[in-house]
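Deliverable D5.2: sample structural annotation.
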Amino acid sequence: MTKDTLMMLKRVILYDLIILLLSFAVSMIFYREYAIVLIIGIAIALVNFLLNALITEYTMKASKSKILILAATVGRIALAAGFAYILYNDDMINIIVYLVGYSLHYVSMIISMIIQKNKR
């Protein structure tokens, strides 16, 4: 991986961890029963992000990149959907909390990019 890509991944992971800890603290105070679902949402989003970065980096060098990108995308979607299905358990609030956690990963990406832009 390039140095810039690694630095970006490290920043996003750092901000994901900060958001995860803050979210966990808030959810333990107000919504204790959904804290683990929120953490799973953030974790799955981060894993998806890291897998996407690795697969994209690899496919840029591979000759059959279109097929690999398609298969990897379907796999990552299946991973996220599989966890949503497992967490559903006849409780729609679990899905909402999972999606909130998943979406918080994008907040960390935005924060990371804003801070990086301001440093330049």
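Annotation notes: The first helix runs from residue 3 to 30. The radius of gyration is 16 Å.
The annotation will be released with the project's public dataset once the embargo ends.
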